[in-house]
Amino acid sequence: MATSNSNSSSKIPQPDNYVFHVNLLEITNPIITRTLSIPAHTTFHSLNLALSTAFNWSTNHEYTFQTLSTLARQPPDLLPPRPNKLISTYEPLPHPPIGIPIPTPPTWTHSSNITIQDYMSTRDPSHNLIYEYDSSADGWEHLLTFLSRATPTTHITCIDGSGHQAAEDCGGPEEWEELKEAYRTQVPDKKQMEKRWWYERFCVNGEEGGLDVEKLNRGEWEGVGAVEQRAQERLERENER
């Protein structure tokens, strides 16, 4: 994706890309996934832009990356994995509240100062990445699972996916499930009609015609071409600033 240039030089041999499968957590019926091929020197800031493009988020909200460590002695069906903040990254809000100092956690690293290669070179096999978008409200958590290495490229590419994009600012995974049901029901009640009205008129990544239930139920997604086109449009807007 053009929005996620890794800024690596093409004059010297580059290390292979890292391929990650990305799953939007707590979403079912159908699931929402994307698969990205990521240049080794991509910063986590650039990765955020690429993930936002692939999942059609607006980038209007804060985000974080964290590693999750599942301990061998911890029963996975009883306790969730806990964040390991030693490899966490963050992006501060551009305009913090006036007069309120917001200290940077000492174990956190700014997302522009660490690359995928930095992370992978110290990676524990039991660690996975969690990318959270809009953590203060909707709380969209994405699980990034490493799959393989791939031929180096100059920018991140989305190579596969499934599932219709979730509605930004709808309230999170539970509200997204309710919004889907509002379109699936043949006789929507007042609350469901209000959800449809909001999605079609005010949702930043909504659709004027509403959700196509048949495509939604089949788990169809917009495709690689649409993601690449959105990436190009975002890059052009950024260059105009």
Automatic annotation (TrEMBL):
Source organism per UniProt: Cladonia borealis
Top-level taxon of origin: Eukaryota
InterPro entries: MM3350-like_sf, Plasmid_pRiA4b_Orf3-like
UniProt xrefs under Pfam families: PRiA4_ORF3
Protein name per UniProt: Plasmid pRiA4b Orf3-like domain-containing protein
Residue ranges of domain Plasmid pRiA4b Orf3-like in the record: 18-201
SUPFAM superfamilies noted in UniProt: MM3350-like
